[in-house]
Structures are given as C-alpha cells and as structure tokens.
Amino acid sequence: MTMDMKQLWKRYGPLAIILLVVIVITAWRYALNPQTTTAVLASTLRQSTPLVLGALCGLLGERSGVINIGIEGQMLLAAFIGFLTSVWTGNLLLAVLAGVGVGALLGLLLAFMSVTLKMDQIIGGTVINILAFGLTGYFYQAGLTTQGKLRPIPLGALADIPLIGPVLFNNPPITYVTLLLVVIIHYVLFYTRWGLRTRAVGEHPRAADTVGINVYLVRYTNVVLGGAIAGLAGAYLTLEAVGSFERAMTNGRGFVALAVMIFGKWTPFGAWGAALLFGLATAIQTQLQFAGELAIPHQFIGMLPYVLTIVVLAGFVGRARPPAAIGQPYETE
Predict the structure, then answer these.
(1) Whether 309 contacts 259, CB under 8 Å
(2) Which residue range forms the structural domain that includes residue 109?
C-alpha cells in the first residue's frame, strides 16, 4: 500500500467502514420491513438537520479563528422569536426570516465581544447562552400555538423512488435548504477566494494581514453568517419540526453540534456525516421505545445516541487538528 493510500485509509478508512456497515444493515432491514426502515431513515434526516446547521455555524466561526460555544443560545432564542413571529403574524416565511435575523444579531454580538473587545471567546459564548435561556424563560407563555408549521414539499417523481424518495425528496423547505448549505459552504470554503482567506485567517492571521486580508472583516462576516445559520436551526425546531415552543427545547443540540463539527474535522461533508450518524442513533432509540419490544428502562434506550457518539469519537476517529489560530484575539501592530 503506497503512502498516499495509507494516508487516505488512516483518514477515511474508519468512516468508510461505518458507512458500509450502515448500508448493509439498512438493506437487510429494508428487505425485512420496508415501511419501518423508510420511517427510521426519514427520522434520521430530520434529527440531523438542526445538528448539521449548528455544526456549520461553528465551522464558519472556527475556520476564521473564533470559537462559538453560544450555538445553543443562538438556536434557542431564534426558535423563540420565530415562534412568536408566527403566532403574531401567521406568516411562516416571515417567522423563519425573523429566526435567521435573530441568529445573525447574536452572531454580531459574539463577533463584537470576540473581535473588537477581544474578550475570552468561551466567556462570550457563555454570555449568549445565559442571555438566551434567561430571555426565553422569562417571556415564555404556555398555551401559545403557531398558525401551523412548514409542510413537506414532494419533488415530483423523485419522491416516488422506493426508500430514497420518501427520505430525500419529500421534506419541508428548511431540510432542503440544509442539504444545499452543506454543498454551498463546502464549495465556498475550499474552492473560492473567500474560503481561502477564511482558512488563512484561521491558521495564521498575521500572515493573512501581511498580504492585505482584513482579518477583522473576515471574522465578523463568518461569525455573523454562522449565527444566521444557527438561527435557521432554531427556526427549524419550532416552525418545521414541532410547531410550538417549550423552555430549553434545544435540549443540548447546540453543544452536540460542536461535537459533530469536531467529529467531521471542521469540514461541511464530515459534519453532515457525523450529524447523520447521531440522527440515526436517535431514530433507532425512538423506534425501540415505541416498539416496546425490549424489557429495558427507557432511560437506557435514550442513552443510545450519546453512547454511540462517544464510542465512535473515542475508537474510530483519529485526533482532529483544529485551526491553529482558534480562540486567539488578533491585534494589528
């Protein structure tokens, strides 16, 4: 095996094995019970959507050198504002835009604290989380319901393809947008001038500044865009997945998204694959709980996604290397 092949195997081999095992098990289960298998895979995509959006948010910030642990708060406050906008206006599109806008504003706040004030970035993200939990808890009112939620949009004949059609081509709009964002952000990061500048700022901001790149502008832009994507994840929870709001309804998804981002090695497709793995585990444990076939307390079944994620992170994935300048405030000379 050549050196290049060894490097490829070291980097992608474990993920390829996991993917192969999942495909084999899925094919076997589909042959036994097509309806249940389709339902589990469709649930996998739904469960992974807010995680991959949160991971893309963190990825944009950290690729430019800004740590964002405030994803949880950005998602939560965006979910709440999107929910209220839907209640007050009855316009779901306006509600989604409100959620995205709130996420972008919180991203701007994080960028101001991290880039301009040069605060510790962990503290800045913690401030956003506390702010979001405090505001949503204080203003939350039980009994409010939205005027509906975003419905699936079948993509013609594609939605009729067995197994793949109902899973990939019969989804609500935010799910489609998420799939597009994975492709778009991958292309922007690795095939455009802006992506090259973002990665340069995240690795060596001094060298980037020397060649004329505005480090502050790159970091501000990426953190605000990331916040908008986290806002979209929050809007997904209230306007597409549930149709209502509950206190702390993000339920740690923002923090899980950070693990998904690291698992995916700060790449969009890697993060998507990690989110799908976590989503699959969540869908399986939900199916097991509904089936009631196992005489195991539901708390242990509910642990399945988290245990699986820990096992994969610890046993199959090599040590991930973050951007070199992550978390480091930059000062011009």
Answers:
(1) yes
(2) 43-150+163-251
